[in-house]
Amino acid sequence: MNISTKLGGQSPRFDAFLFAPVGEDRNGTLVSVLSALARFGVDPWKEAEALVNLPRTAAADRLDEMILALADMPSVATNHHGIATRLITLLPQAGTIQNTVRKSANSMPPEQRTQVILWAGIVLILLLGQMMAPQPDADTSGGDTSGTVSAPLTRPGNQTP
Predict the structure, then answer these.
(1) Is 139 helix (H, G, I), strand (E, B) or coil?
(2) More confident residue, 58 or 139
(3) Predicted TM-score (pTM) of this structure
(4) Contacts of 16 (CB under 8 A, 6+ apart)
């Protein structure tokens, strides 16, 4: 079981980003992205999702502003942009099939999602029924349907008139 699942059933796809170190605070405690975002009162997983959906430079700029605003972390003041750029590379790529499907599914009203699921289920049942239905024989004359050839076999050189 991964850390995100233990923390409340969150998706593990942001773990590399959320648990990466940002820097040390005044007390010498290592602060992770998750901790930094929590200090702003932001849901870390929602913020990570929002950053994934931004272009990389815009996401880095947004994270850079947040890092710079961490008053109790003077150690990051000199390299805040480099830290933000490094951390953004840990996010999954936007535009992957999973992100595209998730984004389109979330933009659909719940009633429409239900209809799509029902129609997909009906189509699946019909396809399975078609595959499992007995196939009619090609020969409807009532003759031998075993697929054997009724003519005697002869060798190519020994044909009789």
Answers:
(1) coil
(2) 58
(3) 0.53
(4) 90
